[in-house]
Amino acid sequence: xxxxxxxxxxxxxxxxxVCLVVLIILIVLTYFLASNISKITGKTVEAxxxxxxxxxxxxxxxxxxxxxxxxxxxxxxxxxxxxxxxxYVDCGTDSAACAHIEKVPAWEIGxxxxxxxxxxxxxxxxxxx
Length: 129
Description:
CATH topology of the largest domain: Glutaredoxin
Low-confidence stretches: none
Oligomer: single chain
Strand order of the largest sheet: 2-1-3-4
Strand content: 5-15%
CATH superfamily of the largest domain: Glutaredoxin
């Protein structure tokens, strides 16, 4: 009567490869969609940092920068409006205020001086917000 048809191993391998390729394609599409969501929707995905801004404004924080510093420009662009309540010192024009600063961008938080580019959550954590 009807003998059972044996399963061929190559069919299983082919199905596994097809599933793997489809999975990889889905992951890549998801990545590109997520990375370009602001271009597609016109909106950015950003946490509400209004509480962080208020906290940073209350802290004793000084941002040291210079006009000819590319990292400083990157820092200013990264923080944007979050710099509103933070004391800002241009070491290119006020060298006396920057005498204790080795390089820019620099952050003085309380009695601690930190160097480099910080994002808002890092700055908030270092300031105790």
